[in-house]
Specification:
It contains 5 helices and no strands. The N and C termini lie far apart (32 Å). The chain is globular, with a radius of gyration of 15 Å. It is mainly α. The relative contact order is 0.19. The chain has one domain.
């Protein structure tokens, strides 16, 4: 049976491999905050000008990817905390949904692949590992 926590049974990088070059949790949180603030500022500027806002798809995906990876890492660091697990599952699903709708995945397996049944958390690791630094 595939294990979304360890990644066993999935053809995706283990958490250790996927996150080996990741910044600290604090640095990741700061980067996510900066991306989010930039996207919100762009939307606000467009709104003030009365223009329709079209989000930068690359930045929107980057925000989703980094949020999902951070939630996955927090869940791995605190396995007893159900809230971290719920966030990791929910954000992994949001990234997969975005990638299905925009055809923006980077790894070998698409977000709708049976490979990710029963969890998209290993999908997040695949995508984070392919993102690169």
């Amino acid at each position: 049976m595939p294990d979304p926590i360890t990644g066993n049974g999935f053809d995706a990088p283990s958490p250790e491999t996927a996150y080996k070059s990741a910044p600290s949790l604090l640095q990741e949180t700061a980067a996510i905050t900066r991306i989010s603030e930039r996207l919100q500022a762009e939307a606000s500027i467009a709104g003030h000008k009365g223009e329709p806002y079209e989000a930068d798809e690359h930045q929107e995906r980057l925000l989703l990817l980094r949020r999902a990876a951070l939630a996955d890492r927090l869940s791995l660091a605190h396995p007893e905390d159900e809230a971290f697990l719920a966030d990791a599952v929910q954000l992994a699903q949001q990234l997969a949904k975005f990638d299905r709708e925009h055809d923006t995945h980077a790894g070998s397996y698409e977000p709708g692949a049976i490979e990710w049944d029963p969890s998209h958390r290993p999908y997040v690791r695949q995508e984070y590992d392919h993102w690169g630094w």
